[in-house]
Amino acid sequence: MNMRMPAPNTVSRNKNGYLPYRLGKDSLQFAASSLVSPLDTANNKAFLAEGKILYETYCDHCHGAKGEGDGKVADKYAGVANLKGDAIKGVSEGHIFHVITMGKGLMQPHGSQIRVEDRWKIARYVKALQGAK
Description:
Elements: H1 28-34, H2 44-58, H3 60-63, H4 86-89, H5 93-102, H6 116-129
Helix pairs in contact: 1-5, 2-6, 5-6
């Protein structure tokens, strides 16, 4: 049974019902203004705690523990983004999610390595690092 081909014209979803991410790398403006986190705010503390663990796993080595662009990799490659800097501080969670997914500048795409839900948790944690409410 598991060797069957999917039915024609169907799209697979993950266990939470999310569709595959289909915006292109050049769709950052659209993503920043239209993508909204599916994470509810009722469990915000739990999402932030999980986001912190994920950030420490995937982001800390470049962006640093406090998001100031001073991680170990930043010593080798100039231009790692300071997530608390004025250029990034005002961006939306959707913007951060898109950049994690598709990459931007020096940052390579991580969409194939980090699950959709986890990318949203990282985006929420980054906003918390920036001091957003």
